[in-house]
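Researcher: Last one for today. Full complex below.
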Amino acid sequence: MSRWKIGTIVMVCAVLCGAIALSAARPAAQGSASLANDPKLVEDLVYANRILFAQSVLDGFGHVSVRSDKDPSHFLMSRSMAPALVTSSDIMEYDRNGEPVDARGRNSYVERYIHAAIYRLRPDVKAVVHSHSPDIIPYSVTGTKLLPIYHVSAFLRLGAPIFDTHDDFGDTDMLIRDNKLGDGLAKVLGNSGVALIRGHGFVAVADSTPIVVYRAIYTQINARVQIDAGRLGTIKVLTPGEAAKAQAIVEATVGRPWELWKSQVGKIE
Amino acid sequence: MSRWKIGTIVMVCAVLCGAIALSAARPAAQGSASLANDPKLVEDLVYANRILFAQSVLDGFGHVSVRSDKDPSHFLMSRSMAPALVTSSDIMEYDRNGEPVDARGRNSYVERYIHAAIYRLRPDVKAVVHSHSPDIIPYSVTGTKLLPIYHVSAFLRLGAPIFDTHDDFGDTDMLIRDNKLGDGLAKVLGNSGVALIRGHGFVAVADSTPIVVYRAIYTQINARVQIDAGRLGTIKVLTPGEAAKAQAIVEATVGRPWELWKSQVGKIE
Amino acid sequence: MSRWKIGTIVMVCAVLCGAIALSAARPAAQGSASLANDPKLVEDLVYANRILFAQSVLDGFGHVSVRSDKDPSHFLMSRSMAPALVTSSDIMEYDRNGEPVDARGRNSYVERYIHAAIYRLRPDVKAVVHSHSPDIIPYSVTGTKLLPIYHVSAFLRLGAPIFDTHDDFGDTDMLIRDNKLGDGLAKVLGNSGVALIRGHGFVAVADSTPIVVYRAIYTQINARVQIDAGRLGTIKVLTPGEAAKAQAIVEATVGRPWELWKSQVGKIE
Amino acid sequence: MSRWKIGTIVMVCAVLCGAIALSAARPAAQGSASLANDPKLVEDLVYANRILFAQSVLDGFGHVSVRSDKDPSHFLMSRSMAPALVTSSDIMEYDRNGEPVDARGRNSYVERYIHAAIYRLRPDVKAVVHSHSPDIIPYSVTGTKLLPIYHVSAFLRLGAPIFDTHDDFGDTDMLIRDNKLGDGLAKVLGNSGVALIRGHGFVAVADSTPIVVYRAIYTQINARVQIDAGRLGTIKVLTPGEAAKAQAIVEATVGRPWELWKSQVGKIE
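Model: Here's the assembly. Have a good evening.
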C-alpha cells in the first residue's frame, strides 16, 4: 500500500474515533417524555432553570415546571437537582397527582406537589416557579403584604397571599411534600400570580414560561424596592386601574428581557 | 518557480484569506440613518447602551438616545430591544415627533416620546437616558427629593422633580406612550438634569453621551448613599456654591470613567 | 530513514514530552499526612475552602478543617494561606492540641486552636468553619440572637451563642491563639451548630464537610434575612417542632447545593 | 533544497516574526522615574491600583501613591487615568509640592496635593489611598464617627476624623486642588490611619502599600458593618487595649489577603 493510502486510512480512523467520542459525550437519546412534548416547550423550561439561577431567584434549591402540551393534566419538571445544571435530558413528566410517569430510577423533587396542586386548581396556569428567595422571606415571616410598587411588578395587584403550613398542619418539616399540603397552598394562592409560604419562600404562576420567569424575578426586585421605599416615607402604590393596564402592557413586552436573559445564559443542552 | 517566490505567494495568500475572513465577520453595511450621522456619535451611543447595562442602570428595559448631528430636530436610538444587545446596525433615526424616519419593519420603543419631547423642549440637551432603576423607584413613590449628597452627583443641584402621570392623565398604563405624556414629563423636568417618574423610573439628560451616562450612573449611586446617610443622621448636603463648582469640575473629567467603562464593555459592533 | 518513519518518531516524541510536562505540572507527591487519609476527605476539604470563598463566607482570612479519619484525635487543615488558593498539597495534619504533625517548614494558622478545642469537646463534630463574615459581626457586637427564620437555616434552632474573649481574658488581640481560648469558645458553643465570636466572626460545626459548608453559608444568609425582616415587623420564627423536622430534611438534601457549589468552583488540585 | 529544510526555514521565520511582534507589543522602555525606583515598589503600586478597583474601593476616580524610596521627599503615582487601567509605564514621580518631576506631556491628578501634603506632614507614611467610596460618604455628611467594630478594622482606633473644606475654605469645588487644601486635610488627619472628607470621600494612610490597600478595603467593609450593627442595637466596640493588640497582629498577617488580591488581579504590566 502506498504511503498516501496509509496516511488516508490513518486520518479516516482518527475522524471516526473522534465522532464516536463525541457521540458518547452527547446526552443519551432523550426519554419518551420530552420526545412527546413540543421541543420548544422543553427548551424554554431548561432556559427557565438556568435564567432563574443566573438572576439569583433560585440557588441550589427551588424549581420550575411547565404544563405538558400533549396532556394538560400532566406537567414537566427536571429531576431532583440544582436548577443551574439542568439539561433537556433531565426533564421528567408528572401526572396530575405529581407522580412521575416514567421515572427510570431518577429522583423527583420532594415538593413536586406544589406544582401538581396548582395545575389542578388553576387551568389557566401553564408554568410555576418555586423559590426560597431571601428577599421574600422577610415578608412571609412578618405577614407583610407585597404591593405593586411600580409598573414592572404590576402583576402583584393580583395579590401575594401568605400560606402558613402551621395553620392547618401544625409542626411540619415545612416542605409541601404531599397533595394535601399542595392543595392548601393552591387554595391560598387563589387567583393571584404569586403566593408566599411562611418561613419557606414563594411561588409564582403564569400562563407561559417567559412570564412566570419574569414574575419570579420582579417579585424579588419589588420586595427590595418596597423595603427601601418604606424607609423613606409613605408609599404611593399603583392604583388598581394603573396596575391592570401596566401589567397588560409590560407582560406583552416580556420578549425583550426574555431574549436578554437567554443570551446571558448562552448555549444549553 | 523559485522556492522563495513560492514562499512569498503562500504568505500573501494567507494574508488575503485573513482579510477576507475579517471582512466576513464585520456587520452588514449599516442602514442609511447611521451612515448619515457621525460614526463616532453612533459608536458612543452603542457604548452607552452597553455601559448602562454593565453598570446596572438598565436591565432588559430602558433606553438611551442622542440628538442627531445631521438634523438637530431628529434623534437616534436603538430599535426596540434589550440595551445589552444593541449594535450599530440596530440604531434608527426618529423625527421631532418620535416617529421613525426609515423603519424598514423594525419595531420602536413604545416610550420614544420621552426622548422626542425632551429634545423639543430642551435645545441644550444632546442625550437622554430612561431607566427603571430599583434604587430610584423608592424616591419616586414617596415623593422624596434626591439631593446632591457628594461632589460626583453635584448635578443633582439642578433638581430631580417627580412627574406623576396620574396627576393629569389619571389611570394610564404608566408608559410615556405619546407626545402629550412626553410633553408632561419634559415640562416637569424643566431645566433639571434628572427627573423621576412616579412608580416607573427616571430620566437623565445632558449635552453629551458620556455625561448623560455618567449622570444616570451617579444618580443611582447617590440614591443609595442618601438612603444610608438618612439612617445615620441629618445630612449636610453640598451648598449651592459648592455644587455648582463641583459639577463643573467633575463633568470636565468625565473622560476618565468613560474610558474605563468602554474598556470594561470591550469590543462592540 | 523514510519520511514516514521520521514523522512517526516526531509524533511519539511529542506525546512523550507532553506526558512528561503534565507529570511535572502535577503537585509534588503529597506529604505523608494526606496519603494517610482518605483522598475523598482531602478533596472535599479543598473544595470546602474554594466554595466558602466563592460564596463570600471566607475572604483572605478564615479557615475550614475536617477531623482525620485515620486518627480521630487529629484534624486536617490547610497551611496558613488564603482559602481561595488552597490545593491538596497545602493540607496539613494537626494533633489533638492543634500542633502540626509534620510541618516541614510550613506555617500554620494562628487560630488552629479553634478547631482543636472543638474536636476535643465535641466527638460528634467532623468539620469546622471559622469566618469573619461582615453579615454576622453586627449580631456579635450587639448581643443579638441569630434565629431560625426559615427552613434552610433551621439548624440555628440549636442556638448561636456568643463567645466574648473579654469576659474571661480581658484585653486580647481577639484571636483564638491557644487552647485556653479555644476551650473557652468550645464551652460556649456547647451543643450548638454555630457560635459567634464578639467583634471577630463565627464558627460553624457539623458532622460532615458538605453540611458544615452549608451551615456556614446559610448562617450568613439568615443574618441578612433577619435584619430585613426586623425592619418589616415582628418575626414569626420556626417553632421548635418545625425547626427540628426542617433541619433533618434539608440537611438530608445537602447533596443538591453541594454538587452545584463544586461545579461552580470547577477543577481543583 | 529538500522539503524538510524548506519546512524548517519557514518555521524559524514564523518564530522570528512572532518574537519581533511580541517585542513591539511590550511597553516602551519605562521613564526615568520608575527606573530610578525599586521595581518592586512600582510593581506593588500598579497592583494596588488594580486591587482597589477590583475590590470596589476605587472606581473611575480615586488614586493611590507611594513614597519614593530613592528620594523620600518625592512620591510615585499614576498619571491621571482610571486606576483599573494603570500599568508601570503610567507611573510618574512627584516632588514634595506635588509637582511632576518629568511630566513629558502626561496629565497629573488634580488632587495630587492630598498625597503631597500627607507625605510632608507624616514622615511615617509610605503609602496613601484616596477613594470616593459610597459606603463612606454617609459618615462624612452626617458627622458620624467610624468606629473599630471588629478586629480586622482595629486600625480605626487611631481615629477617622472628618475634614470639611467648607470650614476654612467656604464654597470650593470640593477637590483638594492645592497645597493649602492638602495641608488642611493632613492637619485634620493628624496621626490617624484614615480621614474622611465631607461630601467627597476618604483617605487611608500606612507605612506600606499592602497595609494601605488593606486599610482602604476594610474601612469600607467596617462602614457597612457599623450601619447594620446600628440597626440591631447598641454596639460594643473594641476596647483600646483590644484594638491596639488586634491591629498589630492583623496587620502582621496582611500578606495573606495581599497575595490573594494579587492573584485575583492576575498578570499586570
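The beta strands of chain B are 63-67, 75-78, 91-94, 127-131, 162-163, 194-197, 201-206. Chains B and C do not touch (no CB pair under 8 Å).
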